[in-house]
Specification:
mainly alpha
């Protein structure tokens, strides 16, 4: 770990490396960063704060403003799937740790709800779906578990994942 990086970035880089090896403790992060545990605690009061900052550092989940800026609901959904497909390989260890935290789940669900609301405002949301059900479906279809199953287990290339999941999600949500 380069000592030329600012300490906070050294800690975040070390935390990402530790998460990839499933050993994200404050002591492991400190050792990986070449710092004392006290130095890590000066920047992050606990593991939860470190994880939250690591998620922000990796821009997880996608910024709702980016999704809102898409020209249509379909474009927003496609952008979300493409963004997650690009993020999941690097962010997988952190996303796996975050998956058990309610705040992370709520943030991801909020992005999915925004997209469902866009489909509704454009008159394209399927009549048999409530906003909540549409958001839940999109949340599930864009989950880390689905990405892992298709890309890691079944061997789908990223472009196939992006096109098929975007198509499936659009088909599930629209008339």
């Amino acid at each position: 770990m380069s000592s030329k990086l600012p300490t906070k970035l050294r800690i975040l880089d070390a935390a990402l490396a530790c998460a990839a090896e499933n050993r994200l403790t404050m002591a492991e992060v400190a050792a990986q960063a070449g710092l004392s545990r006290q130095a890590v605690y000066l920047h992050f009061p606990d593991r939860a704060a470190l994880l939250a900052e690591l998620a922000r550092h990796l821009d997880l989940p996608p910024d709702p403003a980016v999704i809102a800026a898409a020209p249509s609901a379909r474009a927003a959904l496609t952008a979300l799937v493409a963004r997650l497909a690009g993020d999941y390989p690097q962010a997988r260890p952190v996303a796996r740790l975050l998956d058990s935290q309610a705040g992370w789940q709520d943030s991801r669900l909020a992005v999915c709800r925004l997209i469902a609301e866009r489909f509704r405002s454009e008159g394209a949301l399927s009549r048999h779906l409530s906003l909540g059900a549409a958001a839940d479906l999109l949340w599930t279809l864009t989950s880390l578990a689905v990405w892992e199953d298709l890309v890691m287990v079944r061997g789908w290339p990223p472009d196939r994942y992006r096109s098929h999941v975007a198509y499936l999600a659009t088909s599930a949500l629209t008339k």
